[in-house]
Task: inverse folding
């Protein structure tokens, strides 16, 4: 069977009444709004990772989590090999915190403080913005359509815990990764952080605290404390990604939040007591922005009147949380791959471009000078985020990979330079796959790419397009030549990499991406294969083999100049 969307709405048992109200059925656990959901998440993580629910996870879920983990690691090691700034800074920082009972950074055999390994590895994974994406939308579960974004930047938390304890095998690690994505993904479905200008990484930090604690043997109360600390002390706002040109903070946001979550969990296990029952706390982000007592919850009007005693009194959280423990409907199955480097909401336009190129061979062979106009029709939020006219002049790599104009122009420029594309969409994706070098300093100001960007216009598809998102990513692209001839892609809903796509050979495309990124790191195919082998067979690894899953000979990696030019100079050594 395959990842599917099934929801069983009956409850068969009630468990853990002394801790929090948890309803269980054949495939799911429900944490009601009027229960202590922080402790409920803790108990779920302990139970799920501990094997309480038996061997009832569908094989398709195991395969998917393994694919996403490998994909994320290849993103991370290649970002380090190209000397990207934030991952390099944080890795260098981590190596100044040696800890023989800790965890390892990518490409290192030295153990460091676990939260430092986590911040370094998560930053590297996220740097390219090319790992998995979730849209927080599951209409099969009532109330699970909040639509928050999120990415799988957090698997290093599990590997760190495995290296700290020394008793976590590969299968248990994968189970913990499924759990982490489940908590993070379901929270994204019930609470939209971006609606309140809070960065989406908070959900991943909560999940990281729960899973790290469960793997280290923490009690539900200790995990509850860590979640409370994470939410009360470390909430990042979207100030980190505001403005036309983005900084290191955008890419490192998940890493820094997860560092705080792991540190909070370590403190809780040392006896520090954090805020309890944080989801029902009226002054924490959930009830603060979506009040459940004393006023009507509204994304347009948040009543913060201090005199409203009922509003700040006891009450439920704004949502129920439904979590899978068996079957095939796990949040990871609704996550999307990026087949190269691009903001995921541009995937529809890229598929439309590839379809136009494959179906009209003269389009590429005719050259850029033969193209008069490129019109892209998209939905909100894609139209407003990556279609922003201000992003037609990106000055940094982080801004370029969030510019629809740059992304589409770069792929089209590659096709024109090749003089044509392969005869199938599958092979064309492989040939035109956008690599890190497509966003490097030279590519960023490439005159041919910039000239194509000026030919691009955007249009909002209106309510019809908006209604189709986030089920799909509705996009169309129309290319008009100088003589007036027009090539149109038609409506694209589920491009390759999308969880609902059924036309592409995903394994083949991921193999191409892994090799593309791996060749940035390793000088010999044999070295790349040696690194990939345990990643692709993680389910069978023994605990001792998890100790070196991220290790390779750092001194023998391929030399690459810094992709962004010269790295900023620090004023002093740590």
Result:
């Amino acid at each position: 069977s395959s990842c599917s969307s099934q929801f069983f709405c009956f409850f068969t048992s009630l468990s853990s009444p002394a801790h929090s109200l948890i309803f269980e059925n054949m495939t799911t656990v429900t944490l009601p709004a009027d229960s202590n959901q922080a402790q409920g998440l803790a108990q779920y993580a302990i139970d799920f990772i501990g094997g309480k629910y038996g061997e009832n996870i569908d094989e398709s879920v195991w395969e998917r989590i393994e694919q996403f983990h490998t994909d994320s690691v290849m993103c991370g090691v290649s970002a380090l090999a190209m000397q990207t700034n934030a991952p390099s800074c944080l890795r260098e920082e981590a190596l100044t915190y040696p800890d023989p009972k800790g965890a390892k950074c990518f490409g290192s055999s030295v153990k460091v403080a676990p939260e430092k390994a986590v911040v370094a590895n998560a930053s590297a994974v996220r740097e390219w913005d090319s790992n998995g994406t979730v849209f927080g939308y599951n209409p099969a579960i009532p109330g699970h359509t909040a639509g928050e974004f999120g990415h799988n930047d957090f698997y290093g938390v599990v590997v760190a815990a495995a290296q700290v304890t020394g008793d976590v095998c590969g299968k248990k690690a994968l189970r913990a990764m499924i759990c982490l994505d489940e908590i993070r993904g379901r929270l994204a479905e019930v609470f939209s952080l971006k609606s309140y200008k809070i960065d989406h990484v908070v959900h991943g930090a909560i999940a990281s605290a729960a899973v790290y604690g469960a793997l280290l043997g923490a009690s539900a109360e200790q995990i509850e404390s860590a979640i409370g600390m994470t939410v009360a002390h470390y909430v990042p706002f979207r100030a980190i990604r505001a403005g036309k040109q983005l900084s290191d903070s955008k890419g490192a946001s998940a890493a820094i939040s997860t560092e705080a979550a792991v540190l909070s969990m370590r403190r809780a296990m040392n006896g520090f007591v954090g805020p309890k029952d944080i989801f029902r706390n009226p002054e924490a982000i959930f009830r603060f922005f979506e009040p459940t007592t004393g006023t009507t919850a509204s994304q347009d009007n948040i009543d913060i009147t201090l005199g409203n005693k009922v509003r700040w009194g006891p009450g439920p959280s704004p949502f129920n949380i439904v979590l899978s423990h068996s079957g095939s409907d796990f949040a990871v199955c609704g996550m999307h791959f990026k087949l190269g480097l691009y903001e995921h909401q541009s995937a529809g336009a890229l598929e439309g471009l590839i379809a136009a190129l494959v179906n009209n061979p003269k389009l590429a062979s005719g050259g850029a000078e033969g193209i008069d106009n490129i019109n892209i029709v998209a939905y909100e939020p894609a139209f407003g985020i990556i279609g922003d006219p201000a992003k037609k002049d990106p000055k940094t790599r982080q801004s370029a990979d969030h510019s629809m104009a740059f992304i589409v122009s770069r792929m089209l420029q590659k096709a024109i330079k090749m003089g044509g594309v392969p005869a199938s969409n599958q092979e064309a994706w492989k040939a035109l796959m956008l690599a890190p070098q497509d966003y490097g300093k030279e590519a960023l100001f490439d005159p041919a790419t910039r000239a194509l960007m000026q030919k691009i216009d955007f249009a909002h598809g209106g309510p019809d397009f908006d209604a189709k998102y986030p089920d799909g990513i509705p996009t169309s692209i129309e290319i008009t030549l100088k003589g007036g001839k027009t090539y149109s892609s038609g409506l694209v809903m589920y491009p390759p990499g999308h969880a609902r796509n059924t036309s592409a050979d995903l394994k083949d495309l991921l193999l191409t991406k892994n090799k593309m990124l791996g060749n940035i790191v390793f000088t010999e195919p044999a070295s790349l294969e040696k690194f990939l082998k345990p990643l692709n067979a993680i389910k069978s690894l023994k605990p001792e083999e998890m100790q070196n899953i991220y290790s390779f000979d750092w001194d023998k990696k391929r030399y690459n100049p810094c992709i962004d030019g010269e790295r900023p100079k620090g004023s002093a050594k740590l």
Summary: The first helix runs from residue 37 to 49. Residues 4-19 have pLDDT under 50 and may be disordered.
